[in-house]
Amino acid sequence: MTPRLIPLSDGGASQTLSAGGFILTETVRSRGQVLSRHCHEHTNIALVLRGVFLETVNERPCEIDFYSLILRPGGEPHANRYEKTDACCLIIEVQPQRLEMIREVSSVLDSAAHIRKSWVPILTSKVYREFRTSDSVSSLVIESLLLDLLSRAARYELAGDSTPSPRWLRQARSMIHEEFARPLSLSCIADSVGIHPAHLARTFRRRYRCTVGEYVRRLRLDRAATELLESDKTLAEIALDCGFYDQSHFTHAFKLHHGMTPFDFRSTRNEGSTKKRRVYKTN
Q1: Among residues 75, 210, 219, 244, which one has the fewest Cβ atoms lying within 10 Å of its Cβ?
Q2: Could you tell me if 131 and 142 are in contact, meaning their C-beta atoms sit under 8 angstroms apart?
Q3: Which domain, by its residues, includes 232?
Q4: SS3 sequence of 166-187
Q5: Residue 276 within a domain
Q6: Is 154 exposed, middle or buried (0-12, 13-18, 19+ CB in 10 A)?
């Protein structure tokens, strides 16, 4: 087994934090660096703070960026190439006792996975902020955030399970994805696919583990998060583009769902991109 990654001394040891059976470490890779096929002793979760890189698992390369959540079981071979930019990640090692607790309710950490969703940078920013703050309650907050992240990952995996969805349900979901920024009603969606609204509501909730209204709100907030990160639009413009009544409605919904205002989320991401990083190497 290739040795685990260790920090290169650079004016002091890397910041590491233990929180409820998770050990968090910030790592930096330089542009042009290549990590040949290797594995880690313990299962870990990787959150991208900055940069883009390629990770290859089972001969399949995948581009990893700020929207990426990487799940790596202990002993899973993988390789990394940092061709485009420097990259900074928060590596969360899952201790054996915590891993067994998670396995009692989910197998989400038992196979390698790359999940790219717009809720990932929201939780990444929250975890990193607590990691840098590191006050008397940060450990508890981080533990809660990581469990939230894993529950979302587990639901994401379930949404793609092997049980086929009815054709009409797939059509309804496609319509929601195309029209989520416009006013939608359950009756309108049901009529478009020829199903009774009550049957649509029950089946949709059973399949996607949320109501149609919650799903629409999540799509709007996910799109808003993307716009906050990737565009220079004003908050008012983003609010209208994503289907909110106005900026006030958008701010309230975003804070209620993500625990921070849109302005704070955009600011946190900008701070994370400019902070000086330490350099790491393999041994």
Answers
A1: 75
A2: yes
A3: 167-270
A4: CHHHHHHHHHHHHHCCCCCCHH
A5: no
A6: middle
Total of domains in the chain: 2
Query: DSSP strand E in the chain: where?
Result: 6-7, 16-19, 22-29, 34-38, 44-50, 53-57, 60-64, 68-72, 78-81, 87-94, 113-116, 280-281
Whether residue 47 contacts residue 90, with contact meaning beta carbons closer than 8 Å, is answered with: yes
Distance CA 21, CA 11 (A): 28
What is the token pair recorded at 11? Answer: 């004016």
Q: Which of 109, 128, 160 is the last residue of a domain?
A: 160
- Residue 159: predicted pLDDT: 56
Q: How many residues would you count in the chain? A: 283
Per-residue pLDDT of 181-209, as tens digits, reads: 999 999 999 999 999 999 999 888 887 77
Does residue 76 fall inside a structural domain?
A: yes
pTM of the entire structure?
0.60
What's the mean per-residue pLDDT of the chain?
83
Residue 135 and residue 195 in one domain: no
Could you tell me the CATH number of the domain that includes residue 213?
A: 1.10.10.60
